[in-house]
Amino acid sequence: MWRRSFSTTGVTLGQLGKKKWDAVVIGGGHNGLIAAAYLARGGLSVAVLERRHVIGGAAVTEEIVPGFKFSRCSYLQSLMRPCIIRELELGKHGLKLLKRNPSSFTPCLDGRYLLLGPDQALNHSEISKFSSHDADAYPRYEKQLERFCGFMDPLLDATPPESLQGVSSFNDKLSNKLYKSAFWARCLRQAACLGQKDMGLHGSSIVPSFKSFEQLSDVLKATLATDAVIGSTASVHTPGSGYVLLHHVMGETDGEHGIWSYVEGGMGSVSMAIANAAKEAGAQIFTNAEVSEVLTEDSSIVKGVLLADGTRVESSVILSNATPYRTFVELVPTNVLPEKFVDAIKNSDYSSATTKINLAVDKLPQFRCCNTNNNHSSPGPEHFGTIHIGAERMDFSSLNVILCIGKHVINLFIQYTPYKPSDGSWDDPEAFAQRCFKLIDEYAPGFSSSIISYDMLTPPDLEREIGLTGGNIFHGAMGLDSLFLMRPVKGWSNYRSPLKGLYLCGSGAHPGGGVMGAPGRNAAHLVLQDLK
């Protein structure tokens, strides 16, 4: 049964099609909600249409096991742009961040372990257990990342300097040329300050960044390298993995760079805070409102969307928070978009390497290498951050990077798990889950016996339930051939599309995936600019 949700003026789903909206947003994920908030603040009437019964997309909190609420997909917060938190006053709307300290724990089967976090003294002491030279060199590694993140930061909030598409006025051409000139001039100045050595990290693999370490232990290398392959099918040696690393360390919490946080109430609280800001500005948000088609006029301009129940919603501006494939191949009618554009979208890399298992447990895992914590009911420092299971060497396998987070609720983020396993299918996910639990048992004896129940999302599940094409958590690969001016495809990196009035505002647009919000904010600003 269709039902209304998050309406501030009493508009029902049945009444949704009885007015023409200034803008319609397809998908109530965090980027779609952010776009709606900015558009509503700009004075537009906005309707957000979410397919599922709950808003948030992959940034969602759900009670899958009775009595246990999970951050079902994304699980940590750091990348949300500070300007969005400030401009939308997300703190006032309920966002509360809980900083992690320590931030990571890597247990070893030989009885050793590695703790890392924002405490430099702790880092030095922990790394010294493996190499005193590396302990001294580690701050230089962090400074290198910090310098490059400083270079990248302003690019995230900027629309890529794309060439104008279609017929443009003289003023539009002049404005675009001035914007591009100023953009590239700023980039060149920043690149000159950064230097050639640090600039190389953007396009290289993660491995060269380890050269400052004399005898870097495999445990430290593997722990640091996990951020370079999260959500990717690439290895740590793949060119471009250096950028994926930077993408995961360029965030901040309350002005502290590189600090990741849990969210009170789970990741759904991020989406709820944004939704509250959007509603306050006047946006209408509807759940159980699946869009089945983008409606066009003369195959050249949008005129609205058709819902799965047959409701027609009129608008001359559509922002899609769905993946590029879902938007341009599945929602836009055939033969409307240029064949070359559609082929490029179809041939983009949507492959996934990620499976998520959410567990409810009746006790904390007790790690063999941490025998000092005798009180099994109280968390130790090993329980506060990401726990890297099997990250004792750089040759990661399908079970070797599992990130466990939380107390009584544990999230397993597993690399590498393909959409189509080599043995054929995901027909027996239970067997795979048990292999994961058995691996953790090697480090934390008795872990399997603590499991009350669990929820598992394989790549096909992520595609079917969350709408992530191929199960890719970033709406598409984050390689060098699919970033910046190439995202989602060459020639269309500025959120517009060949279909007039249709914009892309999700993670498939610049600057990419993660709970960042920049695509939604940037796309909304562009729409407001175009409407002027």
Automatic annotation (TrEMBL):
Subunit field text: Interacts with COX5B; this interaction may contribute to localize PYROXD2 to the inner face of the inner mitochondrial membrane.
SUPFAM superfamilies xrefs: FAD/NAD(P)-binding domain (SSF51905)
Name of protein: Pyridine nucleotide-disulfide oxidoreductase domain-containing protein 2
GO cellular component, as recorded: mitochondrial matrix
Gene Ontology MF annotations: oxidoreductase activity
Domain Amine oxidase: 32-399
Protein function: Probable oxidoreductase that may play a role as regulator of mitochondrial function.
Pfam families: Amino_oxidase
Family assignment from sequence similarity: Belongs to the carotenoid/retinoid oxidoreductase family.
InterPro entries in alphabetical order: Amino_oxidase, FAD/NAD-bd_sf
PANTHER family linked: PHYTOENE DEHYDROGENASE, PYRIDINE NUCLEOTIDE-DISULFIDE OXIDOREDUCTASE DOMAIN-CONTAINING PROTEIN 2
Superkingdom to which the source organism belongs: Eukaryota
Subcellular location, record wording: Mitochondrion matrix
